UniProtKB/TrEMBL annotation:
Family: Belongs to the ribulose-phosphate 3-epimerase family.
Comment on bound cofactor: Binds 1 divalent metal cation per subunit.
Residues that bind a divalent metal cation: H34, D36, H67, D180
Annotated protein name in UniProt: Ribulose-phosphate 3-epimerase
Amino acid sequence: MTQFRIAPSILSADFSRLGEEVRNVVAAGADWIHFDVMDNHYVPNLTIGPLVCEALRPHVQVPIDVHLMVRPVDRIVPDFAKAGANRISFHPEGSDHIDRTLSLIHDHGCKSGLVFNPATSLSYLDHVMDKVDLVLIMSVNPGFGGQSFIPEALNKLREARARIDAYKEKTGREILLEVDGGVKIDNIAEIAAAGADTFVAGSAIFGKPDYKAVIDQMRSELAKVAH
C-alpha cells in the first residue's frame, strides 16, 4: 500500500500568527510542512527565507519540506539546512550544475528534490536519479498561491511515476513523487491515481476554518485509490 503524505503549504497561512498556524495544521494531521521560498527573480513574488524556517522549527515535529523557487540556489542551500529543513527541492533552471546542487543538499544532511514546472521536461532526471530523493511536479506555474490545477500535470505525473518505478525496480531505492498546485478535496484522488504520493495543498487547507476536517476528507478520498 502506498503511504500518502499531505504537506500543507504555509504560503496560504496567516503570516501574522505563523507559529500557531503551523502547530494547528500539524495537530490537524499534516505529515509535512511545505515551505515556499520565492526570490522575485526566478519567480515574480517574494516570500520567506531561512530565518522564518529557523523560527518555525521548534514549533513543528514533522519534516519541513523547503521548495526553493530561487536563482541561484547553491548560495542559500546551507542556510536552509542550518535553519532546520529536512528536504530541499529546487528547479533545474535555478542551478548551473544540477548534480552539484543535489550533492550539496546531501552534504548538508538533507534529502534532495528536483522540481518541474508545467513546461519543464522530465529529461533533467536522466542522469541524476541516484541523487534525487523527491520529484516535485508543479501543477501550476510557480509564484502565487490559489491557482487552478493544470490538467496536463496528470500526464506528467504518470510519466514521472513510470520512471520512478523503473528506477526502484532496478535499484530498490525509493523516490517520492510530490505534486504542488491547485490540489483540493475534489481532485486529490484523481491526482493520486496518476501516481503522486505526496500532496502540497495551500489555500485548500488554510483557506478553510477547520483544517482537520479538510485533511480528513483528503485522506478519505485518498483511501479510495489503490496503488
